[in-house]
């Protein structure tokens, strides 16, 4: 299953990288190693660490501007996923027929490693990390890249792995054309980032389904049979790849399902059957059963031993800022779910815990529709503590569904209010449903501030 595709793009010439973050700097290093004349351009300020790397590598760069005349001379453009397709510079480049691609697309030309690619609106990071953990434990020489860890391009340039687990966002997929996943996973598709997709759900769904482009009959497509939007996409986007659905609602002949004894059953053609009781999983909650099913299907395709899979699923510890247990103080559990930046992620979080929950939420609202959360808020949430500058929509959405909604002036204040409201057996859950950029630099800083506040109680 070779993945080398040297002929799709120029293999020499003037390579311009737009954006000097992790993916951009990695692509610049790989491009230089492959003989390109490389120039990195960032309209913002480049961090000191990345600036030092570019200087050490002898790669030309500019910051706080895009020198359009120079950029338009490019043979090939590698673009940061954060730059939208409708940006004037991108439109000009495409009008001039200069190829604009993602770092993943660029780097994939230079490897024949197996590529296990995971996308979805929720659960990507957990499933990617769990898969990586499982494959490592199974003795696979595996790298971890995409939306997580060191850039794929940098690892292709400087490492030598037999396989990669790649967490891939829709923004990355939008600039991928010839890339081929040996195993493509779509976990779920729920409204997120719709502002980048003309507020059209079908455009966002189409972006996710770019994951299965170019797959052959030797490849695998893993997807959730219980996810409405994914099922809608199946009829419109065809692939020759072998289908491995996972479900908690029915029994499937191949794929993953739950039997009557609450065992996860994983069946892949020509491989031995895997079975494990749901209660033995280290990651609990309905959504984590789905994540384990997806990871288990990848592991089974890779022919990992059942014992290795079972031990991995029993021992895996979740990533930071995603349903991360911080402390139990006075019988109250404090959970850091700062990575939950959309409504669906919060729905998953609420679904994972029993009542009573004190929910800390708020921040920069991306046009959230809170309707899908209302039933869970009614049945599980005893109070909402709002963070962030604009809390009006949270008050309007939930004022009839929970007894207490209060604003806070800081994360420290929010945690102190929550601890005052909580009784023994309750859960204080930071799951914001919003971006963090009003009070914090990013969701990581928000999560760290939450943990600091909890530990100072």
From TrEMBL:
The keyword tRNA processing does not apply. Cell wall formation. Catalyzes the addition of glutamate to the nucleotide precursor UDP-N-acetylmuramoyl-L-alanine (UMA). PANTHER family: UDP-N-ACETYLMURAMOYLALANINE--D-GLUTAMATE LIGASE. Signal peptide: none annotated. NCBIfam families: murD. Residues 118-297 form the Mur ligase central domain. Belongs to the MurCDEF family. Its EC number is 6.3.2.9. Keywords: ATP-binding, Cell cycle, Cell division, Cell shape, Cell wall biogenesis/degradation, Cytoplasm, Ligase, Nucleotide-binding, Peptidoglycan synthesis. It catalyses: UDP-N-acetyl-alpha-D-muramoyl-L-alanine + D-glutamate + ATP = UDP-N-acetyl-alpha-D-muramoyl-L-alanyl-D-glutamate + ADP + phosphate + H(+). HAMAP family: MurD. This is UDP-N-acetylmuramoylalanine--D-glutamate ligase. ATP binds at residues 120-126. Its main location: cytoplasm. The gene is murD. It is an enzyme of class 6 (ligase). It comes from Sphingobacterium arenae. It is found in: Cytoplasm. One of its GO terms (molecular function) is UDP-N-acetylmuramoylalanine-D-glutamate ligase activity. Pathway: Cell wall biogenesis; peptidoglycan biosynthesis. Residues 321-434 form the Mur ligase C-terminal domain.
């Amino acid at each position: 299953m070779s993945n080398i595709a040297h002929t799709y793009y120029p293999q020499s010439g003037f390579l311009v990288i737009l954006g000097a973050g992790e993916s951009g700097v990695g692509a610049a290093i790989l491009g230089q190693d492959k003989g390109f004349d490389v120039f990195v351009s960032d309209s913002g300020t480049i961090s000191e660490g990345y600036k030092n790397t570019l200087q050490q590598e002898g790669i030309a760069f500019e910051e706080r501007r895009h020198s359009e005349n120079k950029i338009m001379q490019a043979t090939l453009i590698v673009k940061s996923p954060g730059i939208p397709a409708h940006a004037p510079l991108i439109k000009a480049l495409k009008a001039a027929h200069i190829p604009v691609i993602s770092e993943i697309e660029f780097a994939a030309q230079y490897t024949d490693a197996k590529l296990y690619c995971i996308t979805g609106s929720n659960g990507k990071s957990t499933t990617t990390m769990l898969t990586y953990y499982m494959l490592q434990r199974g003795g696979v020489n595996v790298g971890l890249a995409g939306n997580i860890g060191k850039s794929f391009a940098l690892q292709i340039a400087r490492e030598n792995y037999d396989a990669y687990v790649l967490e891939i966002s829709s923004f990355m997929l939008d600039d991928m054309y010839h890339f081929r996943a040996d195993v493509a996973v779509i976990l779920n598709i729920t409204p997120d980032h719709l502002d980048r997709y003309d507020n059209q759900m079908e455009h966002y769904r189409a972006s996710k389904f770019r994951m299965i482009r170019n797959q052959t009959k030797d490849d695998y497509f893993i997807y959730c049979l219980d996810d409405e939007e994914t099922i809608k996409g199946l009829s419109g986007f065809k692939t020759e790849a072998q289908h491995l659905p996972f479900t908690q609602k029915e029994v499937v002949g191949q794929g993953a399902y739950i039997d009557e004894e609450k065992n996860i059953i994983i069946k892949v053609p020509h491989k031995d059957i895997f079975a494990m009781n749901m209660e033995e999983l280290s990651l609990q909650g309905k959504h984590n059963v789905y994540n384990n099913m997806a990871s288990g299907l990848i592991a089974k395709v890779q022919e990992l031993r059942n014992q290795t899979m079972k031990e991995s699923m029993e021992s895996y510890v979740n990533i930071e800022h995603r349903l991360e247990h911080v402390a139990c103080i006075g019988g109250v559990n404090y959970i850091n779910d700062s990575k939950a930046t959309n409504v669906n992620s919060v729905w998953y979080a609420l679904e994972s815990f029993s009542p009573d929950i004190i929910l800390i939420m708020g921040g920069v609202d991306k046009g959230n529709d809170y309707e899908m959360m209302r039933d869970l808020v009614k049945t599980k949430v005893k109070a909402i503590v709002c963070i962030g500058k604009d809390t009006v929509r949270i008050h309007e959405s939930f004022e009839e569904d929970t007894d207490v909604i209060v604003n806070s002036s800081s994360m420290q204040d929010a945690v102190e209010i929550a601890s005052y409201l909580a009784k023994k057996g309750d859960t204080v859950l930071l799951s914001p449903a919003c971006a963090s950029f009003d009070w914090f630099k990013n969701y990581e800083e928000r999560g760290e501030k939450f943990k600091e506040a909890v530990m100072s109680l």
